[in-house]
Each structure stands twice: as C-alpha cells, then as structure tokens.
Known about the structure:
- By secondary structure, the protein is of the alpha+beta class.
- It has helices spanning 4-7, 14-17, 20-38, 97-109, 122-128, 139-142, 162-170, 190-211, 223-237, 242-255, and strands spanning 48-52, 59-62, 78-81, 86-88, 115-119, 148-151, 175-178, 182-187.
- It has a single domain (14-263), classed as Class II aldolase/adducin N-terminal domain (L-fuculose-1-phosphate Aldolase), CATH 3.40.225.10.
- Strands 4-3-2-1-5-8-7-6 form an eight-stranded mixed β-sheet, sandwiched between helices.
- Strand 1 and strand 2 (59-62) form a beta hairpin.
- The chain is globular, with a radius of gyration of 18 Å.
Amino acid sequence: MSSVTSLSSVSSNVRQRVTPEEWEVRVKLAAAYRLAALYKWTDHIYTHFSARVPGPDEHFLINAYGLLFDEINASNLVKVDLDGTIVDDPTGLGINYAGYVIHSAIHGARHDLQAVLHTHTRDGIAVSAQKDGLLPISQHAIAFSGRVAYHGYEGVALDLDERERLVADLGDKSVMILRNHGLLTAGISVEHAFQQLQGLERACNIQIAAQAGGNAELVFPPAEVVAKVEEQAKVFSNGAGPGVARHWNALIRQLERTDTDYKN
C-alpha cells in the first residue's frame, strides 16, 4: 500500500472487528496525533504515540511507519504485541522499529501507564541537550519539579537491551527527557499523557525563549516556592482529577473546528 489515496479505503471494517473499548482508545490516540500535527510538534514520519489496547492481551497501538501525523485515524493505527509481532496492520506499512523499542519497553514494564507520547520538537531537543535539563524558571516548568526522569542518548533506539535502561531511568515517573533526542510523557490515559506533553512542550518553549535574551540573568524562584508549586501540581499530575477531562474536551473542540476525520 503506497499512496495516501488508497489508505482511505483500507480499513472500513476495523471498527467491526475490534471491541468498543479498543475503538474508543483508537479514536483518542488518533486525536492525539492530529492535535500534535495542529501544534506543529511533528518530525515528519519519525516520532510516535502509542496506547495500550484494553483487555487481557499485551497489545498496543502505534502509527504506521510512513504516515504523517495528520493522516492518522482510528482505523489505520497498527496493533502490535510486546514481542514486536504485528497483530493487525490495515495499511501494510509496518511500524518504526525504534518506536517499537521505546514504547514496548514502557508498556511492558509499567502497567499503570496506558499511553506513551514521544516528540522530537526543536525546543524539546534543545532542552534535552542542556546539562541542567528543564530549569525551574516558569510556572509550567515548576509544575514538573521532582517529576522528570532523564535517559542518556545511546544512538537510534534499535537495540532491545536499551529497553532495560529506559525503564530503569524512568523509574516510577511518567515524564522523561531523552538526552539529545526529545521528550516523552506517559499517562493513565491518552488524555493524561497529552496534557503532560502539552505542559512539558510549553515549559521547553519558555526556557529556550528566556535563554535567548543574551546576557539577561534568569530569575529562579526560591526553593520554598518551587516546593509549594510542586505540591499544588499533585492535584493534576496523577491524571485522576477532573482537570484532565476538561483539558481534553477543550482540545477536541479545537480540533473538530477543522478536522473530524481522525474518528474514521
């Protein structure tokens, strides 16, 4: 299958062959891809979002390798197991192996996390290349205080044994900066993972903008203020509060002003 035109008709029966629960996750994950395209967080065809398939099988959904984020819909997502075996691929395009390595590592080790989102944005990579990483210089960044893990760059993620180090570095956190590479957030739902990614991307945007001021000295809030915000952020950082749903519903309203194809 080589053309986008032909992709539009490959998956008319996907909804009929999956459970309602899986279809709901597919729609949300496809929306996350389209929103990332809307916010220009894409790196052509080279990054990936995934979500666990509800049910007893260790399966997750990820993008077909070759589709742009604004071409992803609920039907053309690829279903794969933790061993890398493709369970269902309506497009025939397969998946990005580096994406499989990263996402299978987290889905295999962290059953509390349902979705994993990874980006290669300019400002995200720029922060990942800074020795001190994410700086507590904005409200957005301070909200992640104490919650960010770091993983050292090992090259393109094609080695299966890197999964052990990814998981070890992530620990019990759900936000990670991949050194010289990009950003990664996970969550108890697609909505939660996306909210975290949006906040982290914004924090990186602000940091790079602030550092662009040349010799202007940055202001760092006092430690007690950072600790206060860290405590305040706990009410939404676990993804269980009503704020996640409100945030997501607003995102969907924004997306659907111009794009409803993601639901197909």
